[in-house]
Backbone:
């Protein structure tokens, strides 16, 4: 495959992430843009599985985007990279991961449903990344839509800086241009003149000279005069343009192409990505897309592990340029890697290119050192360079994995490594206490898709069950313990005697062991054996089978035999003496308490707080957030939140979201401890 030379310059590039809630028509919208620009002959269909961006078997089967995929088009000399992202809340991590690669987030809103959960969250995340934002109201020709109501909802939720570049006309079958060439067409609401004036007024507010000229002129200022302050308004969030389209009929698609190419920022006009050269993210490094002769700096924002191509890492060039065959550094590694090939992606199809300039998005294959968030560069000065981290929502949903076929442990480990490499919102934990591997993700659908891939691509069959709760045990008072271990087996016997005292420690202190033996009643060489016996109880638990913590053990006396005393005897004596002390020290079971924050429409607040209180939760407070949303804070036992995502979806009709993290441990109620002790005793006897 011959490599083609890049024909565009940085100023002619547009990098745009198309984001929004599932069902808003993002993939179909991209198909319409590709067709209208002449990139493809005819638009594909999500229903038929023929779109450029939804090309995996899972996506075709589900008829929804599950991965972030890339395509591009050219219009009027402008090269536009479009990143199609998943809209399900379960796959939000995959959508967020591409935001460092773009200058603009195009948030697509379904005219039939209005502002939804992912709409709100992507607007917030895009603002945090300081991206320019464009709101696209899609499906404007659908039946029974209230387009004026949707527009008012958007302005109420996201602010009065949301202003229309066009307006729907003929009941959504056409659009009226309010910016480039104000149309004579009568829109379905408002007026072209009012919208035109409002957006010009908003833009010139940021330029005093232009404002003065604008007020003095009888005619409008030119679009050329408006360009720089327009970009400044986008960067500052002072303006969030809104446009209306129908991806099905093509209404507004031609003007949307013009908006993307003429009004959205190029890599030199958008807010530059924040890079740092220290782990504390305090020392900001200036990276300039406009400095053509500067050394190369790129950032990996997506990794795929393809069974045929191998590892495919996609990165954005943030500074300088890079050529096929260049030797570059990865992070702080001193050894260079060779970029044997550079690719440009059009969905699943890769075209080899020879050069990538600042602002370009391109891929390289078969470089194992490249991972999500890797910085690649051509100078040792960037050894510690990294980009501002993407704040991923914590993976709250977890399942414990159990192989149904023995001998596949290595195969499962390799598969999990590859899948977590691709998806930064998937985490794998090993719970040593429960001896189980736990897979965590953003939701039930998310993990179902991961497990499906493990079966289909890697041939691994896995059964799942809810993860075990990480209870702990501790003691509440001081106590003493004693045990004499004596065993005679014909020849040399075993003898060891231990006296010890235990004391409770403050919560979170762990374990302390202290040797206070005097006079050599236990020789020094046997003290580690006593500690070993104590630690066996710490690991295995005393009353319910969970690890003991926050306890201090003081060994103060004992006896030994010059012939029969040996290590195994003092291990046994230490273990039994410790158990004896625990039985007198009023042992208790501690349960993990999670701090949970639930964001929900205000109409569901009562249902949420009622449910949390009913599962032993303590409501800490609630605050109003953007739009009609309320954030509720509470502390809840983790054992009560095992299937909370499903519960929340049911309580809020799918509109609620939550974050959760372990906060502290507390004593379990007596009834819960009694049940845990009962479950442990039969197992202990066996």
Residues:
């Amino acid at each position: 495959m011959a490599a083609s030379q890049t024909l565009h310059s940085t100023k002619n590039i547009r990098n745009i992430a198309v984001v929004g809630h599932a069902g808003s028509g993002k993939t179909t919208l991209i198909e319409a843009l590709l067709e209208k620009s002449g990139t493809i002959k005819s638009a594909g269909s999500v229903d038929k599985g023929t779109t450029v961006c939804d090309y995996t078997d899972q996506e075709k089967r589900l008829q929804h985007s599950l991965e972030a995929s890339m395509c591009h088009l050219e219009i009027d000399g402008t090269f536009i990279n479009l990143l199609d992202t998943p809209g399900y809340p379960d796959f939000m991590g995959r959508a967020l991961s591409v935001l460092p690669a773009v200058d603009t987030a195009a948030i697509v809103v379904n005219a039939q449903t209005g502002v939804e959960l992912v709409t709100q969250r992507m607007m917030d995340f895009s603002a945090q990344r300081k991206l320019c934002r464009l709101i696209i109201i899609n499906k404007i020709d659908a039946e029974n839509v209230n387009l004026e109501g949707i527009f008012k909802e958007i302005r109420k939720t996201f602010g009065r800086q949301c202003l229309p570049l066009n307006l729907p006309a003929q009941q959504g079958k056409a659009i009226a241009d309010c910016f480039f060439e104000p149309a004579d067409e009568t829109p379905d609401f408002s007026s072209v003149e009012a919208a035109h004036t409002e957006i010009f007024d908003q833009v010139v507010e940021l330029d005093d000279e232009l404002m003065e000229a604008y007020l003095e002129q009888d005619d409008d200022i030119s679009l050329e005069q408006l360009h720089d302050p327009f970009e400044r308004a986008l960067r500052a969030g002072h303006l969030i343009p809104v446009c209306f389209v129908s991806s099905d009929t093509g209404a507004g698609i031609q003007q949307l192409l013009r908006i993307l190419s003429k009004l959205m920022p190029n890599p030199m006009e958008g807010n530059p990505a924040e890079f740092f050269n220290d782990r504390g993210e305090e020392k900001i490094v200036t990276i300039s897309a406009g400095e053509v002769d500067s050394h190369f700096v790129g950032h990996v924002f997506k990794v795929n592990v393809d069974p045929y191509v191998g590892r495919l890492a996609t990165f954005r060039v943030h500074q300088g340029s890079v050529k096929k065959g260049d030797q570059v550094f990865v992070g702080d590694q001193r050894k260079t890697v060779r970029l044997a090939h550079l690719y440009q992606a059009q969905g699943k199809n890769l075209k080899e290119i020879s050069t990538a300039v600042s602002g370009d998005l391109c891929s390289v294959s078969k470089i194992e050192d490249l991972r999500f968030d890797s910085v690649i560069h051509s100078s040792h000065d960037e050894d510690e360079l990294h980009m501002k981290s993407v704040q991923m929502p914590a993976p709250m949903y977890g399942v414990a994995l159990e192989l149904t076929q023995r001998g596949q442990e290595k195969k499962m480990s390799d598969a999990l490594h590859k899948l977590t490499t691709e998806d930064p919102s998937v985490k794998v934990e090993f719970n040593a206490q429960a001896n189980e591997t736990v897979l965590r993700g953003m939701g039930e659908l998310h993990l179902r898709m991961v497990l499906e891939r493990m079966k289909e691509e890697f041939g691994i069959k896995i059964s799942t069950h809810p993860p075990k709760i990480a209870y702990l045990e501790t003691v509440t008072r001081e106590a003493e313990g004693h045990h004499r271990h004596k065993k005679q087996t014909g020849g040399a016997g075993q003898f060891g005697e231990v006296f010890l005292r235990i004391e409770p420690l403050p919560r979170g202190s762990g374990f302390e062991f202290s040797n206070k033996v005097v006079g050599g009643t236990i020789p020094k060489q046997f003290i580690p054996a006593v500690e070993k016996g104590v630690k066996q109880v710490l690991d295995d638990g005393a009353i319910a089978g969970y690890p003991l913590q926050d306890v201090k053990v003081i060994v103060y006396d004992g006896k030994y035999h010059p012939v029969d005393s040996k290590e195994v005897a003092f291990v046994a004596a230490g273990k039994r003496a410790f158990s004896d002390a625990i039985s007198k020290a009023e042992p208790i079971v501690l349960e993990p308490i999670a701090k949970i924050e639930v964001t929900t429409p205000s109409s569901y607040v009562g249902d949420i707080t009622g449910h949390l209180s009913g599962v032993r939760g303590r409501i800490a407070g609630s605050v109003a957030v953007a739009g009609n949303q309320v954030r509720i804070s509470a502390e809840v036992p983790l054992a009560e939140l095992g299937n909370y995502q499903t519960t929340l979806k049911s309580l809020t009709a799918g509109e609620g979201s939550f974050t959760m993290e372990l906060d502290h441990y507390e004593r379990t109620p007596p009834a819960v401890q009694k049940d845990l002790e009962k479950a442990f005793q039969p197992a202990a006897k066996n």
Q: What stands out?
A: The CA atoms of residues 112 and 145 lie 6 Å apart. The chain is about 25% helix and 30% strand. The longest strand covers residues 588-601. The chain has a mean pLDDT of 89.
